[in-house]
Design brief:
The protein has a domain at 16-128: Rossmann fold (3-Layer(aba) Sandwich). The chain contains seven helices and eleven strands. The protein has helices at residues 9-26, 41-52, 80-87, 109-123, 180-183, 199-207, 213-220; strands at 2-6, 32-36, 62-66, 68-70, 126-127, 130-131, 135-138, 163-167, 174-178, 188-193, 223-229. It starts with a strand and ends in a 10-residue tail after the last strand. The chain binds 6-phosphogluconic acid. The site of 6-phosphogluconic acid (6PG) has 16 residues, from strand 4.
Length: 239
C-alpha cells in the first residue's frame, strides 16, 4: 500500500488526476475500464479535471463505470451519475457510448444490480473469475465503508455477484454497490480520502487489521494507493 500525502485536497486531487493520466500513457493504445465512486470527496477532483486537465486526458480511451450508485433518479442531488456527469463528463470530449451508468431510478434495485453485473461481466475482461477493471477510484466513509459496503455488510466483500443491492444503515437509502472480489481484482485501486473527519478511518487502514470494509479492500487489493491531504492522516504522536 502506497501513501501519498499532499498539503491540500486540491493538490491531492491534481496529483491523482496526473497519476491516472500517466498510468494510461504507459499503455498508449489500450482502452481503460475505470470505475468511479461518488460522494462528496471526489467532486472537487472531477471539477478540477474538467477545468484544468481536459486537454491532456485521453478521453477516447476511457470507458467509465460506476463503483456505486444511490437508488435515486439522475436528477436527484444524491445521484453519483448526476454529480459526475455535471462536474466532469458533460464538459469533456468523452464518447457518450463509453459511459455506462447504473440506473438508480429503477423500481427494482435487485434487477438493476443484476443487469449492471451482466453488463460489466460482458464489457470488462475476466481475470480469475471476476471482471478486472484497470483502475478503480474509491473513497471511504467515516464509518469505514467503501463502495456502498457498510460495516456489518462484510459478506458483500466476498460475494459472487459483481454488484449487489445494499442499504445505507444511517438513512435506509438503497444503493447498488460493486462487491469486494471485483474491487480487489482491479489492476490499480486508488483511494482519495481528504478532510480531518477521515483521520480515524485512514489510521485504521494504515495501522489496523481488516476492521472495516475500506481497510479490508486496502489490505487485499493489488496496487493500492492512498491519495490523502495532510489533515486526513494523524501524526504518529496522535495515534
Ligand atoms: C458514495 C460513494 C462512497 C464514498 C464514501 C465517502 O456513493 O457515497 O461512492 O463509497 O466514496 O461514502 O463519501 P464522502 O466523500 O461523501 O465522504
Amino acid at each position: 500500500m502506497k501513501l501519498s500525502i499532499y498539503p491540500s485536497s486540491v493538490e491531492a486531487s491534481r496529483k491523482l488526476i496526473l497519476h491516472i493520466i500517466n498510468i494510461m500513457n504507459e499503455e498508449p493504445v489500450k482502452t481503460f475500464n475505470i470505475g468511479l465512486s461518488g460522494g462528496q470527496t471526489p467532486a472537487l477532483m472531477f471539477d478540477i479535471w474538467a477545468n484544468e486537465y481536459s486537454n491532456v486526458t485521453p478521453w477516447e480511451r476511457m470507458r467509465i463505470f460506476w463503483v456505486d450508485e444511490r437508488c435515486v433518479p439522475p436528477t436527484d442531488s444524491d445521484s453519483n451519475y448526476g454529480m459526475i456527469c455535471s462536474l466532469l463528463l458533460s464538459l469533456v470530449p468523452i464518447p457518450y457510448e463509453n459511459v455506462f451508468r447504473i440506473y438508480g431510478e429503477m423500481k427494482s434495485p435487485n434487477k438493476e444490480a443484476k443487469r449492471y453485473s451482466e453488463l460489466v461481466e460482458q464489457l470488462v475482461p475476466d481475470k480469475d473469475g471476476f471482471p478486472e477493471f484497470d483502475i478503480i477510484l474509491l473513497g471511504a466513509g467515516v464509518d469505514g465503508h467503501t463502495s456502498s459496503i457498510f460495516p456489518g455488510q462484510e459478506k458483500f466483500l466476498n460475494a459472487d455477484a459483481a454488484y449487489v443491492t445494499t442499504v445505507n444503515p444511517i438513512n435506509g437509502q438503497k444503493r447498488i454497490a460493486m462487491t469486494g472480489n471485483v474491487i480487489i481484482n482491479a489492476r490499480w485501486t486508488i483511494f482519495l480520502i481528504t478532510g480531518g473527519s477521515k483521520a480515524e478511518v485512514v489510521n485504521e487502514i494504515c495501522y489496523s487489521g481488516d476492521v472495516s470494509p475500506a481497510a479490508y479492500v486496502a489490505h487485499h487489493a493489488k496496487n493500492v494507493e492512498l491519495f490523502l491531504d495532510e489533515v486526513a492522516i494523524l501524526n504518529p504522536s496522535e495515534k
